Amino acid sequence: MAARINKKRSFLFVSKVLGKHIPVRPYASLLSGVSLSLLLQQALQGNLPNHLIPLAMQGIIEPLQAEAAYKEIMSHQLSLPQSVAFIGFAETATAIGHAVFQTFAHNGSYIHTTREVIEGSSSLINFSEEHSHAVAHYCYAQDLNLLTQAELVVLVDDEITTGKTSLNIIRDMQGKFPKKVYYILALLDWRTEDDQEQFRKLESELGITIHVISLIKGEVSVLGSSESIPPQTTELIHAADQKELIHYTYMDQLFEHADAASRRPYLRHSGRFGLTSADRAQFDEAITQAANRLEQTRTGTKTLCVGTGEFMYIPMRLAAEMGEGVRYQSTTRSPIHCIDREGYAVTVGYPYPAPEDPEVTHFLYNLPVGLYDDLYLFMEREVDPAALQPLLQILRTRRLQRIHVVFFSPQTIEWKETEAWQIGAQN
User: Fold this and answer.
1) Same-domain status, 197 and 270
2) pLDDT in tens, 64-98
3) What is the rounded distance in angstroms from the CA atom of residue 412 to the CA atom of residue 427?
4) How many domains does the chain fold into?
5) Contact assessment for residue 191 and residue 124, using Cβ atoms and an 8 Å cutoff
6) pLDDT of 47 over the 80 cut
7) Are residues 154 and 290 in the same domain?
8) 379 and 282 share a domain?
9) Bridge partner list, 153
10) Which residue intervals define the domain TRSP in the entry (predicted)?
11) Domain of 359: which CATH number?
């Protein structure tokens, strides 16, 4: 548990598998999404091999078994009985949603919502996450057929507390892309009986059915308020003799881009603009090639891979295939009280202006000094050098042997601090 710096909701469940605030074994995080996929398949079709769900759950509980469990489940090439559009919620569920979609070999499509306003693009779905620090959600599907032709819509979130966010998107979707049945998948479901009654009311109002599947279900009660917690700051002390190297790596030639004409294009395979099952094999191949080449650049045995904001799944997949001793986590928009005491989930954290948009504050949590040899910072698009410096200054205090900044858009900048490596399909 942790305390949010948020008047609307004062608490936060800090997941041990999400890969956001706490570093995790990447295969365990992927398995959390795969587990939801298996429960969905069982609900839709009922012909799942009996050993798969226990295998997935055991891999989450015992992370050392996660890789073998993940590979065994993915080898079954599961197929959906009908066309399904998966929608992952930004920010924290973009990776879980993608992992759910990626479990199925056929009949699926995936898109995740975003807090970003993308110039020149129209949002097809607009809804609010009322308790959040960033309320508005947008959805930029490039192909309307992903939503119009899908027989079933499956919403994926990391946690349902009241369920208002899910109800908001269903209400907006039903007016544009009406469906008879919706499924909601979440790691945690904390809805009270009153909250569940709101679901039943919306079902009756719209003439639809809503099913909720979670790994854990229960109820919570909250006493007190995070507003009573005094703010704490953590000083950044840079070691004068630190000799870390920074390498700037470009992966653009291995991945397709959604808007290739842009100077700094988004990735097509991120899920922000929509994917189908037909994209799955090409994406997996690109991940394996990129991970193999990144693994060769590791200098030590302890490595942290860091995704940025909504850009979570591709970095997580790369981390999973970069060898032993790799952990994964991501930066976030969520402001949390940091308290250095036993049993508290977020002991240290640093705010910084987001390199992509300095008007937005991001945070990096639970990164202690001297724990890792290498750190890989994954960024979907190249950014101006000056905008990256606040985050790099934080990383420089962590006593790393090497910091790798990995971009997925074409190189337009000549970096001054060190050699930029171009890793492309041709070499």
Assistant:
1) no
2) 999 999 999 999 999 999 999 999 999 999 999 99
3) 19
4) 2
5) no
6) yes
7) no
8) yes
9) 85, 182
10) 270-395
11) 3.40.50
Q: Six-digit token pair at 321?
A: 């295939």
| Tens digit of each residue's pLDDT (9 = 90 or more) over 213-230 | 999 999 988 887 777 777
Q: Are residues 156 and 274 in the same domain?
A: no
Whether 288 and 175 map to the same domain: the answer is: no
Task: List the CATH number of the domain containing 188.
Answer: 3.40.50.2020
Domain end marker among 168, 200, 217: 217
Length of the chain: 427
Q: With the CA atoms of 178, 273, 16 and 316 taken in that order, what torsion angle do they form, in degrees rounded to the nearest 10? A: 150
Residue 240 lies in a domain: no
One-letter identity of residue 325: G
Query: Does the residue 259 lie in any domain?
Result: yes
| CA–CA dist 265, 412 (Å, integer) | 12
User: pTM of the prediction?
Assistant: 0.92
Would 223 be classed as within a structural domain? no
